[in-house]
Amino acid sequence: MGETRRESLPRYQLFIDVKWVDAESGKTFTATNPATGESIAEVAEADSADVAKAVAAARKAFEGKWSEVSPSERGRLLFKLAQLIEEHSGELAALETANAGKPIRESTFADLPLTVGTMEYFAGFASKIEGETIPLFNGMFTYTMREPVGVCGQIIPWNFPLAMAAWKIAPALAAGNTVVLKPAEQTPVTAMELAKLVQEVGFPDGVVNILPGFGDTAGAALARHPGVDKISLTGSAATGAKVASVAAGGMKAVTMELGGKSPMIVFEDADLDNAVSGAQMANFYSSGQICSNGTRVFVHESVADAFIEKLIARSRDLVLGDPEKPETQVGPIVTKAQYEQVMSYIEKGKAEGAKCVLGGHAVSEGMPEGGLFVAPTVFTDCTDDMTIVREEIFGPVMSVLTFSDEDEAIKRANDTEYGLAAGVFTKDLSRGHRVVARLEAGTCWINTYNITPIEMPFGGVKKSGVGRENGRAAIEYYTRIK
Ligand code: ADP
Ligand code: MG
User: Fold this and answer.
1) Are 44 and 12 in contact (CB under 8 A)?
2) Average pLDDT value for the chain
């Protein structure tokens, strides 16, 4: 574990009014590499005074210059941003890996293309946001306009730093809003690189503001600021409840994309090899640090043994290690606190009687020194009341449960306070659609898992949140009807 010399670190200021400035307090914090524990950047730390400046800049732009930019010109600016991100995708992927610990193959082939694609998708949308004319009586009609909501406060997590920034910024700008984005305190680096590209594109002053900082200071200040018209958060359920209640006080519009404990149901007729791929995708991709993960894997009792055997055989050799290496499939856990949380859930799983059939431990041998590595872990013989089956773990830990009929599987799948996503594996088309219709989840996949194309609306029900991101739905949530 090496403490990198502070003076040699890259430094990032706050990005306010399309300019670089220090925090009013002069404070900074350090971004680290979870694979090595090394410091990688020194970042200005925003607090309420900086939030106030950014919101004022965003308001001025919203009412001034930005309101004069035509929809198609907004689209052109977003296209230009997409192009610049694509041109810099090699460096951005490397930085994403260095700060978030994502395997470089994920950063390169998933996060960056998703980020570019998001900018492009919404760039195209900017000129296609339309109202309606509605016939009335006596030859009269009424018409609606879709207006931007205003200044949008956007708070994002550490698991997909760039892609989440794009999911927030792109639809908001396409619809004519201005934004104040707060990246997660663990992963500010690529958001600040994105700010450089925003500046290069030539967005008018104040349209995009990016404020690295902590949740209970900068984040909370953004949520309560009266000049913010909408708050959009991707984060934990606990934070979502807090932020939504603060936002409600100011009658702000909200989109909340929160946690989950999603089910994946494998029926007896499923293609088991494909179901195993789905379960891996739903639990081990990104070291299991994905809100939509299908961590409760319900398998029909008649195929459970075969499924578990295939799952272990194919998961045993997943390459855990240095995320910078191209062969690495599973990287480190993002922070020490998160790592300790994952390890404590693994201990609870064992103590409560689940059978650990794969992993179940930290790994240091063969790993970069100072890294936070947890072996992909599978528990079988799980019951619905176990802590690992009820609570979101946010690590590479899968719980396998068995069931005997469809009704039972659906009831148990829905027996959770969350409702972000769900997966159904069956070759029976009718069953697939029938089960999806009864699942309490915002996003359901059939015979695949964790595919989140930008065209597809995404979001949760129950404690997993409100509102939708992506697709046309995102535009609806970043506009209001007059
Ligand atoms: P986690 O604890 O898993 O990192 P959080 O929901 O706490 O998830 O974090 C997601 C985002 O929400 C981060 O950008 C974080 O800084 C921010 N955040 C955390 N607490 C608050 C809060 N009280 N108000 C506003 N934002 C917050
Ligand atoms: Mg938190």
Assistant:
1) yes
2) 97
